[in-house]
Amino acid sequence: MESIKVFAPATVANLSCGFDVLGCCLDTVGDEMLIQKNDLKTVRITKITGQDLPLEADKNVAGVAVKAMLEHLNLEQGFDIEIHKKIKAGSGIGSSAASSAGAVFAVNELLGKPYSKNELIPFAMQGEFLASGNAHADNVAPALLGGFSLVKSYEPLEVISLPSPEALRVVVLHPLIEIKTKDSRAILKQTVNLKQAVQQWGNLGAFISGLYTEDYELLGRSLKDDIVEPVRSILIPFFEELDKLSAKHALGFGISGSGPSVFALCKGDENAAKVYEEFQEFYKTKEIEFDLHVSPVNPEGIKIL
Ligand code: ADP
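# adenosine-5'-diphosphate complex -> structure
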């Protein structure tokens, strides 16, 4: 195979109770990437549409992730990467992760799959390091593996795939203001109060239990975050109002990744449509442009097109 086209999905990381360790994959929002072998022994970003992003391979997460993989393989093969961006950078729905994960997935396919999807995660994390100064896996793991992913540990890296109840739907509202992951990390405290930590790991455990038992109500009750959300939500216009609005039809509500996107987790299409409508009606009256998405959880992750 000389070239491949892939769909690189958006992802919702943290999911309130799982800061830096939990994420899920979306199905209806994502980029397209076309990757082909070249004879130049270099990795090039040959085209980017939809967003103004660096074409220099060392400054683009896709280039950095692929180079990390080729270095590990000790291989000199070159690749041309085209990125057709639908996910806006700095949106909080894994724009950088989609490119990093999409690129290493595609190159792995072109090379006859020397790595499993799990083994590709560390290479994609190098792209995240470039984007945010932190090699987190809670977007790249669900983008590669699909469904929900739990990062059990970073050293050594261990990622666990979790089940995803059929009826889950995710509504994402992206206010079109940019918050860089770097900046929204910088405002976080580096220490956690024990009482808050106890509550948080209780919620994370309960959320995972809810995924296995398909207990939708429990999933909703577990989407809580007293550690990061109070600090980051200040950066998100009308966060409180959206939280209240979603309460009637959503299971839970929170910040997607590092924001400014917010997400509402819902049971079934009908509830998701109501939340979508309510968010739309509310935000239309504000002077901030926004994107709104609704998606099932994508069980498979990156797809070959
Ligand atoms: P998100 O959470 O939506 O991924 P980040 O702030 O983490 O947003 O990442 C966006 C940053 O990564 C921007 O500074 C952007 O210029 C940089 N970047 C480099 N290459 C890419 C790429 N291919 N796709 C998206 N962002 C990229």
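# post-check
The longest strand covers residues 22-38.
The longest helix spans residues 194-213.
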